[in-house]
Design brief:
Blueprint: H1 3-14, H2 24-28, H3 30-45, H4 61-64, E1 78-82, H5 89-98, E2 105-110, H6 114-121, E3 129-134, H7 139-143, E4 148-151, H8 167-184, E5 189-192, H9 197-213, H10 215-219, H11 247-266, E6 269-271, H12 274-285, E7 308-310, E8 317-319, H13 330-335, H14 337-348, H15 350-357, H16 366-383, E9 390-396, E10 407-415, E11 418-422, H17 432-462
Parallel strand pairs: 1-2, 1-4, 2-3, 4-5, 5-6
Antiparallel strand pairs: 7-8, 9-10, 10-11
Helix pairs in contact: 5-16, 8-9, 9-11, 9-17, 12-14
Bound molecules: 1,4-dihydronicotinamide adenine dinucleotide (NAI) and oxaloacetate ion.
């Protein structure tokens, strides 16, 4: 391992529990940039390479940008956005395109407008192919071979609505999308943005379980492109190996194998809660808990990583201020309870604040697109084998972290096969009021989970799947 990689790993180990996107492209490609710079330098000194008519690369503003990196020569990484024409989908597509060192094919799927958006985006000077996929007939092609599928499809809140009020319309949308994703490309990582996240992730896991759990039945009729005939991933645990012996042993082994297969699918299904993490950093940086800089500006939020656990709605959004990477005086968090609670509430209510300020013209889209881009790039970096990539997300856990709750947002270590484990979350390390918030949030989460699972089970049964 070269020294800059070592340095990078050291930094990762020491620093934030949650990654920061500002340094994404920069860190990964320091060496490549140095090499490119060296090549550029050689070229300038070589008179054979200088022509009067063609301007130097550095004369173009965008080419001088440190974000601009060439695509990797051997492989194309495809990312698909389902709901790409919406308030989140459009800026997200643009941000992902700016990360063409990670994304070389952007597939945009929606029921409307998507061809025009793709045409527009395809003129951005990045080495990234953009394809448009309009309507259900083009959904299979959109999701096929994608490494990450990001889903902001569905209705957004209007003032006065709760996220749960969106369930009626968005559950059906998510169900139909999840079925196709599970059938066509179950090994892709799924990043679910659509609300209510707390119910739509369990709904999706249920769909995956049924469709992939019934793999042997379905395989026969599946087309050759269906990943049902190409299992998502080899079983990750030794327990998944088929045991020899009696028929009881065999059936127990099969059950264990199915459970492992289910977990392996769910490890790739993420409810995106990055916006809560981003808001927690930013609103805390502006709060009384951190002194402003000498120039009067608030602290750099990128240096304050605060895990946000639970879920993505009201009281289930639980920022753990005591676990901030930038030291907070824990005594102050307890003694100045009113300031602490005001800060926590402002993080929980940040979505409503935006909703009301937009006066019916939509909910959070720009900060969400930024957050989804950060999360997607983290997934891709982990898929490429980069270690120590940690993000908070709402996922299903094989062993519940909190009482009997299988679904819970927590900081996760990401890998090429989905998340591997939680990182640094331990109930008994938390302040008493944080533990109490988790208990209260858990009650709401239980209901949201049941709602999503029940919906999926009913639909799947009615379709005899
Ligand atoms: N997880 C989070 O932190 C956040 C989640 N959200 C949620 O994200 C979702 C999207 O928000 P916006 O982009 O602002 O909404 P939007 O209404 O602007 O866009 C939604 C897009 O989804 C498309 N769509 C609807 N049905 C579809 C289907 N069956 N297949 C494909 N596309 C379909 C629409 O045509 C539209 O282009 C909402 O549910 C919102 O509540 C919003 C902000 C934060
Ligand atoms: O409230 C909404 O619909 C959007 C949302 O989830 C957020 O801004 O956190």
């Amino acid at each position: 391992m070269d020294s800059s990689k070592n340095q990078q790993n050291n930094n990762n180990n020491k620093s934030s529990k949650v990654t920061s996107t500002t340094s994404l492209g920069k860190r990964r490609s320091l060496n490549k940039r140095a090499r490119n710079r060296a090549k550029g330098h050689q070229r300038r000194e070589d008179p054979a390479n200088s022509t009067m008519s063609s301007p130097k690369a550095s004369e173009y503003g965008s080419q001088a940008s440190p974000l601009r990196q060439p695509a990797t020569p051997n492989e194309i990484t495809k990312v698909t956005i389902l709901g790409a024409a919406g308030g989140i989908g459009q800026p997200l597509a643009l941000l992902l395109m700016l990360h063409s060192e990670y994304v070389q094919h952007l597939a945009l799927y929606d029921l409307v407008h998507v061809r025009g958006i793709a045409a527009d985006l395809s003129h951005v000077d990045r080495q990234c192919k953009v394809t448009a996929h309009l309507g259900p007939d083009e959904l299979t092609e959109a999701v096929r071979d994608a490494k990450v599928i990001v889903i902001p499809a569905g209705l957004a809140q209007k003032p006065g609505m709760s996220r749960d009020d969106l369930f009626g319309s968005n559950a059906k949308i998510m169900y139909n999308l999840a079925k196709v994703c599970a059938q066509v490309n179950p090994s892709a990582h799924l990043a679910i943005i659509s609300n209510p996240v707390n119910s739509l992730v369990p709904l999706t896991c249920e769909v995956y379980q049924r469709i992939l759990g019934a793999g042997s039945r379905k395989e026969k009729s599946a087309d050759s492109n269906s990943a049902l005939s190409q299992p998502a991933a080899p079983p990750a645990s030794p327990g998944a190996a088929a045991p020899a012996g009696s028929s009881a042993q065999k059936s127990a082994g099969k059950q264990q194998q199915q459970q492992q297969c289910f977990h392996d699918c769910c490890r790739r299904i993420f409810g995106v809660t990055t916006l809560d993490v981003v808001r927690a950093s930013t609103l805390s940086a502006k709060s009384a808990f951190f002194k402003p800089e000498p120039n009067g500006l608030f602290k750099d939020p990128a240096k304050i990583a605060i895990p946000v656990v639970g879920g993505h709605a009201g009281k289930t959004i639980i920022p753990l201020l005591s676990q901030s990477t930038m030291k907070v005086d824990k005594k102050r968090l307890i003694e100045e309870k009113a300031t602490t609670l005001t800060l926590i509430e402002s993080i929980q209510q940040a979505g409503i604040e935006v909703l009301n300020a937009k006066k019916g013209a939509g909910s959070a889209t720009l900060a969400m697109a930024y957050s989804a881009c950060r999360f997607t790039i983290s997934l891709l970096r982990a898929q490429q084998g980069e270690p120590n990539i940690i993000e908070c997300a709402y996922v299903r856990h094989q062993q519940p972290l909190v009482s009997d709750l299988e679904y819970f947002a927590a900081p996760l270590v990401l890998s090429k096969d989905g998340y591997v484990k939680t990182q640094g979350f331990s109930l008994n390390k938390l302040l008493p009021y944080e533990q109490q918030m988790i208990e209260e949030g858990a009650k709401e989460l239980r209901m949201s989970v049941a709602k999503g699972e029940d919906f999926a089970k009913e639909q799947l049964s009615s379709e005899k799947l």
